[in-house]
Amino acid sequence: MNPSDSISAESASTRPAVLRGWRLWAIVVGALLLGAFLFFRNGKKAPAVNPAGRPVPVTVAQARKGDMAVHLTGLGTVTALNSVTVKSRVDGQLVRVVFTEGQMVRAGDLLAEIDPRPFQVQLMQAEGQLAKDQAAYQNAAADLKRLEGLVQQGIISRQQRDTQVSSVAQFQAALKSDQAQVESAKLNLVYSRITAPISGRVGLRLVDAGNMVRATDANGLATLAPIQPINVVFAVPADNIQKVMSQNAKAGKLPVEAWDRDLKTRLGAGVLAAIDNQVDPSTGTVRMKALFSNDDKALFPNQFVNAQLLVDTLRGIVIVPTAAVQRSPQGVFVYVVKPDSTVDLRTIEVQGTDGDNTAVTKGLSGGETVVTDGLEKLRPGSKVALPKPAGAKG
Questions:
Q1: Number of domains composing the chain
Q2: What is the CATH number of the domain that holds 337?
Q3: Does 218 lie in the same domain as 108?
Q4: What is the model's pTM?
Q5: 272 and 288 in contact (C-beta within 8 Å)?
Q6: Does one domain contain both 276 and 334?
Q7: Are strands 193-195 and 56-57 parallel, antiparallel or unpaired?
Q8: Do the domain assignments include residue 27?
Q9: For 199-229, what is each residue's pLDDT tens digit?
Q10: Helices 117-153 and 158-191, interaxial angle, to 10°?
């Protein structure tokens, strides 16, 4: 065998292994270069503009200096001052229903009527018995008067006179009983006319005319609830109870407003009327009751509302929209827009928040412009695109 043929065969066999090794090294080096590129690109400080080089569009608002009311908001339920189930106080057939469902009535207004004829008959019977006993009493009194004269003449004994005195007393007692029966019959006749015990709104009718009603019926004829004035019962966190108590003692009746579920429409204004005497351990809240005049009848019994209790007013404070306030492990901050349309991260101190407004005590001045929307794309020094004023062209 020729030696040169042997060397050529060995070279041919090792060539694929060498090529595979070079390919592996090329892949490794390429991966390292790609990783280094991504590392340095992501590790660079974020530029003042977005990757496309355009300013960040944002929404801004101006910090202002003024007074800010501090409210405590709690979910509340509208409740009537008292609620009455109108029932019959006698048994009988309901012959007439006078009220209309949902009608406003005054105390003493006629609501329904029960057949009065049985009670009229009872009254006539009681009056007849009274007249009968009155006649017997008058006869016994006349006999006693005659016996008094005979006793003085010594014709009859005192024992006979005393017996007659007892008879007169018995008739007097019978007259009192008869008079009570007459008054009872008159009262039943009055009760046959069912009137409103209080002023308020009548609920749905529970019994129709023609039915028999009894004093022992559980449901009654209808319910009656006053709505002017009306109460709102709501709860506030127990952590704020001391502030509420101190303000209530200092300022008198604290104002309370009732709002709808979305906190967009005010339903009424009232005052704090009462504070519960204990904290609910299951919720950590204290129940409170507010009184509303409800002149426009916007509040309805068992309606759910948001009650806002005014506990304080901060005077001469810097106020910014709550949307502009951001929080981080380092503290509370806002982005302030500078005259060159770049933003500066400003650390602030907050005294309180009330809905869409936040009171700032340090780090911000009135008149400065803060970013309220588009905050997630900003860094200190970022250039921003401010919204155009209303009516501006271009």
A1: 3
A2: 2.40.420.20
A3: yes
A4: 0.65
A5: yes
A6: no
A7: unpaired
A8: no
A9: 999 999 999 999 999 999 988 999 999 999 9
A10: 170
